[in-house]
Amino acid sequence: MNVKIAALILQQIKGIPLQGTQLLDFIINNLEDMKVKNVVTLDVTKLSPMADKLVICTATSSRHCRAVANNLLVDAKKAGIPPLGIEGMKDGGWVLLDMNDVVIHVMDQEHRDFYNLEELWSGNSKHING
Question: For 12-50, how does the pLDDT look when each residue is reduced to its tens digit (9 = 90+)?
Fold first, then answer.
């Protein structure tokens, strides 16, 4: 656990909830500690009422996806930030963590290339009616 994460956990212990950029920093620092690649943060405030930010990152394998997600869950619970939902832990190629204001997608390269969430959420996707 790096110093930034420890400081944020200490802040939470003091009764100050992590929100906004502090929550986002906590998540990104945790992901970077777990050696994920290509971390992208998207502001979806105007696109969805479900979350303010999406964080998308690439893990090296399905096992790495599960390990990254599990590590984030453990540190978030220590900081008093229980997730609202978790999907994909069993299969591991794409794990989704709903942390209320921030939704995290931990994906292996195959899933990231196939689903291309950055383009989907950018508004540049095309509808195919057929």
Answer: 554 555 566 788 999 999 999 999 999 999 888 777 778
C-alpha span between 56 and 52 (Å, rounded): 13
Angle at 117 between CA 112 and CA 121, to 5 degrees: 170
Question: Which burial class, exposed, middle or buried, applies to 81 when counting CB atoms under 10 A from its CB (0-12, 13-18, 19+)?
Answer: buried
Domain tally, the chain: 1
66 neighbors 92 (Cβ within 8 angstroms): yes
Alpha-carbon distance of 93 to 12, in angstroms, equals 31
Tell me how far apart the alpha carbons of residues 71 and 34 are, in angstroms, rounded to a whole number. 8
pLDDT digits (tens, 9 = 90+) for 68-101: 999 999 999 888 888 999 999 998 899 999 998 8
98 domain residue, yes or no: yes
User: What residue numbers bound the domain in which 28 lies?
Assistant: 3-121
Mean pLDDT of 113-124: 82
Instruction: Report yes or no: 93 and 42 within 8 Å, Cβ to Cβ.
Output: no
For residue 59, which phi and psi values (nearest 5 degrees)?
-100, 165
